[in-house]
Amino acid sequence: MPAAREPSLADPLIRRSEISVGAVSRQYTALLLAVFTIAGAWLRLSHLGTKSLWLDEGATVALARTSWQHFAWVWWYGEANLQTVYFLMMRAWIHLGQSEVWLRLPSALFGIASIPLIFLVARKFMEAVPALASSALLAFNPTAVSYSQDARSYTLTIFLVLLSTYCFVGAVELGRRKDWLIWTIVSVLAFYSHDFAALVLVAQAVSLFFKAKPAPWRPVVICGATILLAALPGVTYVFRASPENLHFAWMPRPSVKELWHLAMFFGGSGVKIIVAIILWVAGLLAIFRSHRQNQGQGEFWRGMLIVLWAFLPVVLTAVISLLHPIFLQRYMIFSLPATILLAGLGINALGRWHAGVVLVTALCAISISTILRDYNKPREDWRGASSAILSSASPGDAVVFFPFYTRVMFDYYRDRYPGNVPVIHVFAPPYYAGGDDVHTLVNALDSNGHQFPHVWIVVYGPADRLENFDYGSVAGAKLQSSFGSPGVQKFADIQVLEFGH
Residue ranges of the domains in the chain? Predict the structure, then answer.
């Protein structure tokens, strides 16, 4: 068999002869890539602990701190298997520290590592200048920065999806067994870092319909079956989980409005989305122009891989959401690298007056102000709410949460409270466990309405949400009859009601 050549350099989707923005030396390329990586690192590490943890991050802490027996139960019957790799990593990581900064640091590191990685992936599809543009766009993308400061698995999965795509292109082009084996292993890890990564794997397989024959269907089928078998314990979660763990009424259905919000999620709001759309359209034109000019199916296949990666997961999620609403932006974040690659491809379709480079530079520049504003943008202020209770509570007080599972946030901040923590009776079960709840509180109030010096009600969400929970309005009415109207404090999506003498 003849020696294989590197397709990204010899047959890029945008050929060397078409580069209107000018070639760059390897040293200059390495320097720019280092600058973009350092800038992206600064954006991701800066203000890492400014905001309070939010509810999903609290679940991460709970799963990282719980016993192995309890973790195994939640993995089998709860949602822990949806981000298995990340939670296993965090179970080791949390032994070295539990501050907000430390908990978010792995996400920041994977977000930083994805900046040079997307350059390597882009070189499979395009020349150095558009590939550098892709790295810059990822480094300064507000969504990428935001999720790099979130103690969840999203940046880990983006990293693994990028690595999977890199391995997939190499396996298809070179056809070596070890390349298919590596792709299989990385893809299984990607699935177990977040189950929606499977939609990217589907897009990879579908892209082969656009490849010149003979397409490597045999290894794809064998490796795909292996990935599916390995994924079965996670896939079958939907048959084991209780209905309330599968149905979330708040999740949106697809609509024109939601699609527009998703576009802004990928490209940015305001002027940024206009610039992003211009680059995306230019990227599509570059792909289909290369096909019309008969540059070969190899180039067109790689272009269609980017297109399918960007759009097919969104389409599949939208179709599923017609029956079971799951059209949540962060579930489709794994298409973000593809939209960035598409924008990178758009540089040469806008080669006149270097318009593509100007637009990419402008998009990166105006994104910085968005990122800086987001550092201090209010979210769920569980730190403030917990501190308000702990700083004013007396021994023997009671606290109840609506919904009950938000207790995980109070537990985290109570453990980290710098002062003396009074003994408070918590009427909410621990994470995926049994224990006292609001029913127990109502029964206690029935027997003695004044047995607690103070009762704190923590309501997450709208002001009237207390009325939507069983026994919520009952508890509120009993407390008001015993103590009068409560004092109310608000903390960014959280209300703390204090009943007491």
Answer: 15-241+251-375, 382-500
Nearest to 150 by CA among 88, 80, 57: 57
β pairing state of 425-427 and 487-490: unpaired
For helices 100-122 and 55-65, the axis angle rounded to 10 degrees is 100
Nearest to 394 by CA among 477, 456, 458: 456
Q: In this predicted model, what pLDDT tens digit does every residue of 172-183 receive, in sequence order?
A: 999 999 999 999
Q: What is the mean pLDDT of residues 214-240?
A: 90
**Rounded to whole angstroms, how far apart are CA atoms 304 and 302?**
5
Question: Which of 45, 53, 62, 52 lies closest to 148, judged by CA?
Answer: 45
- Tokens linked to 493: 């999506």
pLDDT, one tens digit per residue, over 34-46 is: 999 999 999 999 9
84-89 own/partner pairs: CB under 8 Å, 24+ apart: 84/192, 84/193, 84/234, 85/153, 85/156, 85/189, 85/192, 85/193, 86/60, 86/152, 86/153, 86/156, 86/157, 86/193, 86/194, 87/60, 87/63, 87/153, 89/156
CA 402 to chain centre: 25
Coil, strand or helix at 455: strand
Could you tell me if 303 and 168 are in contact, meaning their C-beta atoms sit under 8 angstroms apart? no
Q: Rounded to an integer, what distance in angstroms lies between the CA atom of residue 318 and that of residue 312?
A: 10
Structure tokens belonging to residue 324: 């079971």
Token duo for residue 80: 């822990």
User: Mean of the per-residue pLDDT values for the chain?
Assistant: 89
Q: Which residues does 26 contact at the CB level (< 8 Å), separation at least 6? A: none
Q: Which residues contact 10 (CB under 8 A, 6 or more apart)?
A: none
Task: Give the relative orientation of helices 177-193 and 217-235 as an angle to the nearest 10 degrees.
Answer: 30
Token pair in block for residue 16: 């060397």
- Is the CB of residue 347 less than 8 Å from the CB of residue 461? no
What's the token pair of residue 139? Answer: 């480094």
With 0.90 as the threshold, say if the pTM is over it.
yes
Tokens of 274: 């206009």
Place of tokens 């973790």: 71
C-beta neighbour count of 309 within 10 angstroms: 26
User: Which tops the pLDDT comparison, 122 or 4?
Assistant: 122
What separation in angstroms does the CA of 126 have from each of 65, 102, 254, 310?
45, 37, 33, 17
Which residue in 458, 440, 448, 435 sits closest to 483, CA to CA?
Answer: 448
> What does the alpha-carbon distance between residue 354 and residue 3 come to, in Å, rounded to a whole number?
37
Return the axis-axis angle of helices 68-77 and 84-93, rounded to nearest 10°: 160
CB 210 within 8 A of CB 287: no
**How many Å apart are CA 133 and CA 106, to the nearest integer?**
25
How far apart, in whole angstroms, are the C-alpha atoms of residue 455 and residue 397? 6
